């Protein structure tokens, strides 16, 4: 059917070690360039690169963890995007009743305890979990983990349910005339006010559409490198870089180098552009 299709590159192996590792600095000796950063925070977009991250300990309820916030409502977005470095015997903060949370495991392992069902779910790299507003489930790590997290105040009247899974188990969706491989990690039903897309590009592939739309994006490049156009700016990007894209900024990506590119993308969905903030 048209809802999904075979993935001709299903065997491709993706590794995310450069998201948290200092090895991604290879080729640019940041410590030899005082004051230098590739990060840019403009009115209509932001590029946030690893050398600019500010890690804070045990923020608002996280235990034995460091967090680095990359996108927050302070500059206009309606969501937050941050990285969490969970150490041994660590625990995530409890959700506010009106807040929903999506967790993507970049490295390490976490445990999700479903309080309603007295069940524990183990998640490893490339796995994910969605916690709906009002969730009392807990997230811990025995040995440590690196996470990418998206949170927002739930904006609908539905009752979205807890979700979890593995990225490469999700169906590949048709994207004609585009050539990238697309997976959506959350259901596309009306109860959900955002989705998380995983997009894969082979070197030399690029977005066919030079996009301008009302949706907001938060992006983390998990593997690979390329060129990202944001407005009239063209940025070299590589694994570990994060991007904020507000409504109507021109956006386009081309994958370069010798590795496949994979990025994680927040996108608000099922929202009326007239009634949504």
Task: Characterise this structure.
1% of the residues lie in helices and 44% in strands. With 277 residues, the protein is mainly beta. The longest helix has 4 residues, at 17-20. Mean pLDDT is 91; it is low at 1-8.
Could you provide a short overview of the structure?
Helices cover 1% and strands 44% of the residues. It is an all-beta fold. The strands form 3 sheets. Strands 3, 4, 5, 6, 7, 8, 9, 10 and 11 form a 9-stranded antiparallel sheet that branches. The protein has a 7-stranded antiparallel sheet with strand order 1-2-17-14-19-13-12.
Q: Determine the number of helices (DSSP H or I, runs of at least 4 residues).
A: 1
Number of strands: 19
Helix content: under 10%
User: In percent, how much strand structure appears in the residues?
Assistant: 35-45%
| Morphology | globular
Query: What is the structural class?
Result: mainly beta
What is the CA-atom radius of gyration, in angstroms?
A: 18 Å
Largest beta-sheet characterization: 9 strands, antiparallel
Distance between the termini: 35 Å
Mean pLDDT: 91
Work out the oligomeric state of the chains in this entry.
Answer: single chain
What is the H/E string? HEEEEEEEEEEEEEEEEEEE
Low-confidence segments, given as residue ranges, are: 1-8
List keywords for this structure.
277 residues; mainly beta; nine-stranded antiparallel β-sheet; seven-stranded antiparallel β-sheet; 1% helix; disordered N terminus
